[in-house]
Amino acid sequence: MKMLFSVAWQSLLSRKKTVILTFLSLTISILVLLSVEHIRLQAKESFNRTISGVDLIVGAPSGQLNLLLYSVFRMGSPTSNISYESFEMLEENKLVNWAIPISLGDSHKGFRVVGTNSSYFEYYKFGNKQALTFTDGKIFNELLDTVIGADVAKSLNYKVGDKIVIAHGLGSTSFVNHDQAPFVVTGILEATGTPVDKTVHVSLNAIEAIHLSNDALQKVLSNPNELAPQPDSITSVMLGLTSKFATFGLQRNINNYPNDRLMAVLPGVAMAELWTLMSTVENLLRAIAGLVLLSSLFGLSTMLLASMNERQAEITVFRILGASPAVVLVLILLEAMIITLLAIVTAMLVLTFALYSLEGWLAAEYGLFLSYNILSPELFILSGVVLIASVVVSLLPSIEAYRKA
Predict the structure, then answer these.
(1) How many domains are contained in the chain?
(2) How far is Cα 242 from Cα 392, in angstroms, rounded to an integer?
């Protein structure tokens, strides 16, 4: 076998121009296939890590997918709110370690405004349980302070100390601006690649205050520490529990809470449901990558088949030296396997280097937390399928060589 491998290698070197072109074509197609599969697997995992460490999301009954979309991804609008007393009840529950209130309804130049409190900056996690950090400034302390996401600061060229006006509603253009209460940017968050980057964060008290009449607002601003209004309702609550074992029991109790209409959902389950809606696009990408690979494999077969006439003398010498027709067939298959194996290894190395180089940029710009470690069972299985496919498509030139031998 060692001698056959050596002969196959020398035979490939003797036709290096056509072999190199075939190798490059095969490498690119395998790279596309492996990239699509790896990104598909990692994107799904990254998608599920938009929020990390949240055990339950609680809001008004509207379907778990809708609750997830407006609470986490800032998409859509809530059907109704839950009372602030319900939030306090959840926060004081002995099974709850921390609670993050979320209040939606306003915007700033197309970016969603979220009313919350200091727990948001302390407990909200993303990716691999990464905490929110500031590139500049700090969290809000005064009534009309605001913390903005990285995309908001970049798109609107804001810096700490700038004043912004919040508008009622969610459109990029609004005719109801809260001009009487401009906010001051006190902090800018580090890019996370999540909806946090596109969010303007203010306090719950500020959300209530800016919706007061002008006279009432001015009175509050004269003594905000004592006169700041408390919210009557909020949109949703993110909960971190003291024990994972308490999740389902607490979820059931919340759903049956008698004093308010509440619905608790598990983020992972809701995200799995959302991901299934994207399965059509996912399968389409895999199909395109498969067709690219198939065309390259046929190119490999064509190259081997076209070389048969040139190699007639070589085959004759093998036969004179005592090689059987079966040995000639195995030799051709071995050549195809060598080219394919080299293409697979090269594609893996290129993909690993590309992911290693672009890891930080992909996370910051697109929220894709892609690992450069591509050694997964799925990719090994896929590589094995590619190798078997190369053998199958090489059968025609191999049988041709066998017949002529």
Answers:
(1) 2
(2) 56
Q: What is the model's pTM?
A: 0.71
**What confidence category does residue 144 fall into, taking pLDDT thresholds of 50, 70 and 90?**
very high
Do 314 and 255 share a structural domain? no
Q: What is the pLDDT of residues 269-327, one digit of tens each?
A: 888 887 777 777 778 878 888 888 888 888 888 877 777 666 666 666 666 666 666 77
Residue with tokens 């490498």: 27
Mean pLDDT of the chain: 85
Q: Do 304 and 243 reside in the same domain of the chain?
A: no
Do the bridges between strand 263-265 and strand 56-59 make them parallel or antiparallel, or are there none, so unpaired? antiparallel
Q: Which amino acid is at 194?
A: T
pLDDT in tens, 205-217: 999 998 888 888 8
Instruction: Give the integer Cα–Cα distance in Å for 181 and 213.
Output: 11
